[in-house]
Amino acid sequence: MIKAIFFDIDGTLLSFETHSVSQSTIDAINAVKAQGIKVFLATGRLKKQVQHLGGLEFDGFITVNGAYCVTTDNEVIFKRLIPKDELNSLIAFQENVTQFSYAFMVQEGSFVNHVNDAVTDIARLVEVPVPPVRNLREMVDDEVLQVNLYVDKELEEKIMKEAFVTCSASRWHPTFADVNIKGIDKSTGIDRFLEYYDIDRPETMAFGDGGNDIEMLRHVGIGVAMGNAGDNVKAVADYVTSSVDEDGVANALRHFGLIG
């Protein structure tokens, strides 16, 4: 019996083509909610970046890949920050080794050191504003929840080796990676909400499409990969549904008998 379902946003609820949630997805989620099943968002976004979701209401929010978890009543049940010394190491690497764009994510929003094509392309893809440019040295003492790297996999590996000791990276796009504390991912947030609502892990389901969804899909009772997911995501899923643009969420919920 499923009591809680966790949904990624970009490429799972939100189409990269239409930048909206399909009516079939809205109807399906409302149908499971009507049965008393709790629904949660699990995203790499900040909570203030959660928008355009067709009026859907959720029971909680796993944001910045598990580093900040908050209930629908804005009760913070988990928070984990990027260490300041590693932020300084990243800044030094960017200034002294090679130039690239990166962003610090704080509760007020996401701020970038430099806008380039990668930054504008990612913002356009997920339909959020291009992050404002700031001197990120001035933000080291702020509560930085996540770092975004606008780099390819090869440069990401060099940055992680040289600048980050306690952090790890995950990516859902060839030119973009999220950086969080090692061991913090969407499954971390799932455990916090299961404890909060007294739900057992076998009673859970999750939907995702990106690399930052892999641990979540492994962790829940039933992990569903979208048809548009990468092969590495599909490989860990219990079930692969159709794509976000082909009613993937509704089709999977119907397959498992959660909606008619």
Secondary structure: elements and pairs:
Blueprint: E1 4-7, H1 23-34, E2 38-42, E3 60-63, E4 68-71, E5 76-79, H2 84-96, E6 101-106, E7 109-112, H3 117-126, E8 146-150, H4 153-163, E9 167-173, E10 176-181, H5 186-197, E11 204-208, H6 214-219, E12 222-225, H7 231-234, E13 239-240, H8 248-255
Parallel strand pairs: 1-2, 1-11, 2-3, 11-12, 12-13
Antiparallel strand pairs: 3-4, 4-5, 6-7, 6-8, 8-10, 9-10
SS-derived structural category: alpha/beta
Report the mean per-residue pLDDT as an integer: 95
User: DSSP helix count?
Assistant: 8
Give the C-alpha Rg.
18 Å
* Strands side by side in the biggest sheet: 5-4-3-2-1-11-12-13
Key phrases:
260 residues, eight-stranded mixed sheet, five-stranded antiparallel sheet, 13 strands
General description of the model:
- By secondary structure, the chain is an alpha/beta fold.
- It has helices at 23-34, 84-96, 117-126, 153-163, 186-197, 214-219, 231-234, 248-255; strands at 4-7, 38-42, 60-63, 68-71, 76-79, 101-106, 109-112, 146-150, 167-173, 176-181, 204-208, 222-225, 239-240.
- The strands form 2 sheets. It has an 8-stranded mixed sheet with strand order 5-4-3-2-1-11-12-13. It has a 5-stranded antiparallel sheet with strand order 7-6-8-10-9, sandwiched between helices.
- Helix 1 packs parallel to helix 8 (248-255).
- The longest helix is centred in the middle third of the chain and has 13 residues, at 84-96.
- The radius of gyration is 18 Å and the shape is globular.
- The mean pLDDT is 95.
